[in-house]
Structures are given as structure tokens and as C-alpha cells.
Amino acid sequence: MDAATTTPTTPASPASAPLSVDALVDATPDRRDRVVDFLRAVSIAVVVLWHWTFSLTHWRHGSLRMPNPIGDVPGLWTATWVLQVMPLFFLVGGYANLAAWEAVVRTGGGAADFWSKRFSRLLRPVAVYLACWAVFDLALRAGGGRSVLDWGLVVFVPLWFLGVYAGVVALAPFTARWHTARPVLALGGLALGVVAADVLRFGFGAGWAGWVNVGFVWVFAHQLGYWWRDWPGGRAHSRRRALAVGATGLGTLATLTTFGPYPRSMVAVRGQEISNMNPPTACIAALAVFQLGVALALRPALSRWLQQRKVWRAVVAANGVAMTVFCWHMTALVGFLVAYEAAGWTLGDQPTAGWWLSRPVWIIGPGLVLAGLMVVFARFELPGAGGGGARRPQQRRWKSVAS
Predict the structure, then answer these.
(1) Which of 30, 45, 104, 341 has its CA 20 to 30 A from that of 64?
(2) Residue 116: predicted pLDDT
(3) CA-CA distance, 130 to 377, in Å (whole number)?
(4) Helix axes 86-106, 111-142, angle to 10 degrees
């Protein structure tokens, strides 16, 4: 049950105070699927750590480049079948957005109400992030420096994902109605769209069709999140069905990458003409099915684990600043990179033994910079804090940290 429809079980905070993590923990309804929140936090953490540690970050022709070592290490592509978590994020988003849409409908609202609630938290941290970079860039150029658009486009890597996700959220009132009326037709129609776009792209040389799949693939993954919300829990046959879903996705992915025109890696690899992610292919849709099956199969065990207060508290805290972390993690990387080079160390563009041994440095260093950024900018995302406005005592409803 989406927490946006559930009133707190603890007294509300004073009007001027933000709702604390402990208050959010205490207000968690019994029927809440905590696994959704947990997997959202995990997916953000994996993306951040991937960018920090699994990128051969270096300068080339005066600009930062961030290829990965997948193509340099035999068999390393297998890691991407686990660590490519973008489909998982859309799955979680589908679950949360369907819950939010149902809550809006129950109160007599419509699409405008849904968009207002969903975009307010999503876009506020992004707006602050862009405004800060715009001011910094203007200052750089005023001082005779180069624009970040010339040397550091990597800091805007999060924006492509947020832009696509925002588009999928905008469609949610329509896709949710479609799911409610014709769930099988909705999901099947999207799957057919994914296949048709790839057939046009790879079979008939229509390159533009690949970009059509930016819509079909991610809406398909989001639609799977609706099925997740409808999934029965706590029954043996449900577990078997979950394993069957996972096996179907994994088998389809293995078939496509073995006999089809698709590379095995689920992320872009330097030197490869085709990427499964940019634009997305049917492989990403199959990966979403696989991840859904795994999530549903692990759901009972994870749910029991997440009942522990200290574990759930960590999940609530992480989700409370998830968008801020996502927006600023590449800025933290660049900030540490500047300090790293200023200290006399050099960046490598090959996955040597020394490069692998240095990976912990690229967790701790950017992590410290990000912690400093969070002190300044997390307030714009936290409910009731600096950028979020005052809370209404006894009336403010518990907001979903997965929403």
C-alpha cells in the first residue's frame, strides 16, 4: 500500500519542523511493501558506485571520458546482467506510480493532481542542481575558463535518465488506466512494440527505430512494475510463478545475445558499434523481466529482513535523499578527480592491476565530497525541510520514499 494514502501513526511534528527519519519509520503502515523502497535505494547505490569505480575516467582531447573495462576483461560482461539496474529502477517506479495514481483516483483527482505530486519531489533537486551548475559555468566563463559543456559533460550523465523517467511518469495516468482495463493487452502490446522497433532497426536498417524503443522499452519496464503491485504474496504457487518469470527473462536474454545481433554486455562498451542501452534494445526489456522475477522470488525473505528497525531506518534515510545523491554523485566524482590530480596522481585509461587496486580510493574520495554536498543540498529534497515548505500539523500524510 502506498504510504501517500496512509496517515501517520505517530503525532505530527511541529509546523516548522521536518519529519524525522524515526517518525517516518514509526509511520510505516503494516501493509507497505518495503522491498520496493529497498530496491530503489539499492539501484541508486549501484549506479553511483558503478560510475565511481567501474569507469576508466581520464582526459582525452581536453574533455573527460568515462569508458568501462568490460571490453578489456574477458567474461566481465556477465557482471552487467546483475549490475545494470536501470530496468529495476523503472520497475520500482511503476509500482510506486500505480499506487500514487490509485490514491489520486480514490480522492476524486485526475492526471493534473498526479503530475503535481509526482513531479514536485522529482524535479526540485534537479532544478537546484542545474541552477548551481549554470551559475558556476557562468563564473568559469567570466573568468576566462572553458564552459563545462566543453570539458565536463559527464557531470550531466544523470539527466538523460531523469528525462526519460519523467516522460514515463507523465504517461502514467494513461498507462495505469490501460493496465487496469486490459493488463495483458497493455504489456503484450508494449512487448510487440519493442520487438517491432528492433526488427526495423536491425533487419531493415532503420536506425531511427532504435530511438522509438527509448519509449517502448522503458514504458514496458515501468508497466511490469504495475504487475508487481498486483502480484499475490505469501503463497507457494506465487513463488513458483516468480521463478518462472525470472527464468523466462533470463532465457530470453541468453537467446537474444547468443543468436541475435545484440552484444552480451548490458552497458555500452568502447569499440562496439551496438549498445544495448543507447538506444535500448529488446535485451533490456528481457533483463527487466528477469529482474522482476528475481525481486518477486526474494520478496518474502527480504520483507522479513526489512522488518528490523535498524535495517528499515537505513532504507528510509537513503530514500529520503535518493534524488539528491543521484543528481550530485557525478559532481562529487569530478571534484575528487580535481583534488586527486592536484595531489600529483595521474588518471589511467586502462584496467591495469594498479587501476583495480585503486578502486577503494574511488569510493572513499568521491563519497567524502558527496557527503559535503549532501549537507548543503539534501534540504531541498527532504520532506518539510528548507526547500520543501512547512508541514501542516496532524494533516500531512506520510510520503512514499519510493515515490
Answers:
(1) 45
(2) 93
(3) 12
(4) 130
